[in-house]
Amino acid sequence: MRSVAAGLTLALAMLAVGTTIPSASQAQAQSTAQNRYGSGEILWDSFGVPHVYAKTEAGAFYGFGFAQAQNHGDILLRMYGESRARAAEYWGEKFAKQDEWLIGNDVPERGRAWYKLQTPQMRANLDAFAAGVNAYAKANPDKLDPQVRQVLPLTGIDIITHAHKLMNFQYIASDRRVLANPDTNEAGGSNAWAVAPSRSASGNAMLLANPHLPWEPGPLTYMEAHINAPGIAIYGATQVGLPVMRFGFNNDLGFTNTVNTMLGYTSYALTLAEGGYMFDGKTMPFKTAQKSYKVKQADGSFKTVSFTQRYAVQGPVFDLPGGKTTVAVKVAGLDRPGVLQQYLDMGKAHDWAGFEKALRQMQVPMFNIVYADRGGHILYLDNGILPKHADGDIKYWSRPVPGDTSRTLWTDVHSYDEMPKVLDPASGFVQNANDPPWLSTWPRTLDPKAYPAYVANVGPVSQRAQMSIRMLSEGPKFSFEEFVAKKHETRSLMADRMIPVLVQAAQGNNDADVRQAIDLLKAWDHRDTADSRAALLFETWAAIFSPNNFTDQRNYAVKWTIDDPLQTPRGLKDPVAAIGMLKQAVAKTKELYGAVDRPYGEVSRFRVGDVSLPGNGGFGNTGIFRTITWEPMKNGERKPRAGETWVSMIEFGTPMKAMGLMSYGSSSQPHSRHRTDQLQYLSEGKLRTLWIDRKDVEAHVEETTRF
Questions:
Q1: Considering the entire predicted model, what is its pTM?
Q2: Which of 3, 25, 83, 190 is catalytic?
């Protein structure tokens, strides 16, 4: 009886401090991990954020793998199955074309080669991350969808292969982009700010990380975590499935990414000839390889699909839909396997010299990098692995170019020193909102004429980016609290510009619909807040006036120009037509939303599962910095498609100030209590304190996992 009582006392004590009592299988997994990965632990805070503490670097990766499996196991395993190019084998015909694209581009083979090219420490890290996922799955089989458990077990090869697939064949050269629409954006959007001490009221640098990716759980879902081990102490977020932080900060520096327009691949239109294809006046035979994959059938059996993959001098060969064009695809960076190593080294750095050393590796194939540190340095870098061309611009190289000549066949890429960048500008800030690099600070310091035309378009610069620059140009200095308030601004720059000229154009117009609309717009503060009664009307008019996601400038009197980049586009090209569009918008607003003056938050809802709260923020191309891309109306409301996912705001003072939010919660697993517990903050326009110091973490522990 004494032993039973002692055991019960121990169990109660463990529950009192928030420690999970392991099952037999969990205890066995923990014992194995302790022997191999150094007796670490995960302190799960009250928002479901894992704080991993390990005694070795590999141990930290093990803990992070375990944590990702706990918070996002279903989508995690599905992503690895897709990156193996075996999704059709696991889940059926709908994945066949995706598998064939990856196999045709040799992604699985290259993943194995990349694994061998990692340093011994990084291979150990990748193995450890995979082991962490496997350990969670072994200890908690009932918490994972049976459909994805067949992907187990993982190895370190799976982790690097997924990183390769995500970076090179989703962000840079997806099948949708290469074979269907070169303008496809697979990477989403984002905002970033870095403020120097000269513009900070406290004299400390400040940093905003603010990516805008899809809310639906999938390969672009974010995972927030805090990782601690010898040489590592980083807080931040990354895409589920990646074992390193892509958005992070330590006590001395921080960095974030925004999506840029890096053209990291080239598509070559081939001229077919008897026996092959034409190249420099000669007929060249295709090299070929036999490839295959399996497809699961409805009855559970498997069909093997075999195909012959052709290769030209430029790369793998594919037929575009319709069969009239055959292209070869050359992707930059396939000989650069260090993307995870570079991000790890960026997070390990503690000053500008160390961080720049990591940047010079040039292993990350795209994404602007925005940086700030305790020493007061700030940086904007138009980062990526960019092929060198003799001539041509973005438009030319984003479409298939002639493949019958060596003149278009690039053999080198640009170095770090050749990429546009702004370090410590006199303005005291850098910013990016997915616009070209030229307005990364203001006044402008980068000249497009100093770079090849294929580096980036000259413009136009979005009205979201213009609003970003305007807010950071206000001053002369602002506090951290003002920094946070600016980030939450929902004011529409397009409304600021266009409502006064609409009001002027409507003078003397006695149409009842027009008068009602003008009265609403005149009374509105131009902010997309939950109680706004004119925001839906203006958005509807703006979509008619400027179609194609508010980017078409045909109806403006003055189109965007780099000579006046913060005041254009503006004006009404045809005031009478614009008022006609306003009357049309009144009817459409009533049709869509039930009333012309429906409160914005009644139909725009922050919804995850059964939780639905009043929304705010809106479409970035209307000049709103707090970006929410709303889905079409369904069942009387609309919910976010993308925008406002991970946010962190840092001031490098003593103590450090760190605020943040993961809009859709820390977990995508069904029935998790951490899917909806941050929506109230989002609805109220607030951030939560990010717990960095161990004592603060321990004060908010919900659960402990030891390994």
A1: 0.94
A2: 190
